[in-house]
Amino acid sequence: DGGITQSPKYLFRKEGQNVTLSCEQNLNHDAMYWYRQDPGQGLRLIYYSQIVNDFQKGDIAEGYSVSREKKESFPLTVTSAQKNPTAFYLCVSSIWWLEGWTGELFFGEGSRLTVL
Amino acid sequence: SQQGEEDPQALSIQEGENATMNCSYKTSINNLQWYRQNSGRGLVHLILIRSNEREKHSGRLRVTLDTSKKSSSLLITASRAADTASYFCVRNAGGTSYGKLTFGQGTILTVHP
Description:
The structure holds 2 protein chains of 2 kinds.
Chain A: E1 4-7, E2 10-13, E3 19-25, E4 31-37, E5 43-51, E6 54-57, E7 64-66, E8 76-78, E9 87-94, E10 106-107, E11 111-115
Parallel strand pairs in A: 2-11
Antiparallel strand pairs in A: 1-3, 3-8, 4-5, 4-9, 5-6, 7-8, 9-10, 9-11
Chain B: E1 5-7, E2 10-14, E3 19-24, E4 29-37, E5 43-50, E6 55-58, E7 61-66, E8 71-76, E9 85-93, E10 101-103, E11 107-112
Parallel strand pairs in B: 2-11
Antiparallel strand pairs in B: 1-3, 3-8, 4-5, 4-9, 6-7, 7-8, 9-10, 9-11
């Protein structure tokens, strides 16, 4: 079955360490996104990518980095520069059509990062 | 915030009443869509409306878009207890930022039987 797989689901990190969250999709989707959610808040966009080897900053990119070397993979690295990294991280993907896009997004199950 | 606003943050109504949720935004959009999220579950796509459209319907759902006011509304008519959920608008930026998808904070709808 096609879908988006995020790993790990839960991750604990010590302050000062970088950590990479994995997002893999086998839907042949062009567009992939990373969002962050904090308690009581909505989803905030970190980075997004529309094609391989290209990505754009979202609204809260500071302290994060991404790569898009393969169409199916969009890993997110939370660096030590991110001042408040404890949060729920959600990976999203979609078909990339300028016209005729139905709007349907596909969601991973999320990764919960806790910094100790 | 570049996300804009959704209001109300919470809405409580009786079954059979209509529910209206609003979504405003600050920068131009190419399209906007609405999603529903039941407690503890994933988001379900409801409707997409493009910037050149003013109104769309799907069953008991009606979405309007006013680009001059940079706002959209989701109307659920004859609400049911099963409509209880959080509702989010997702804005797809226009122009060179096309593809930048921004979620609103959401409206929590409670429909009492």
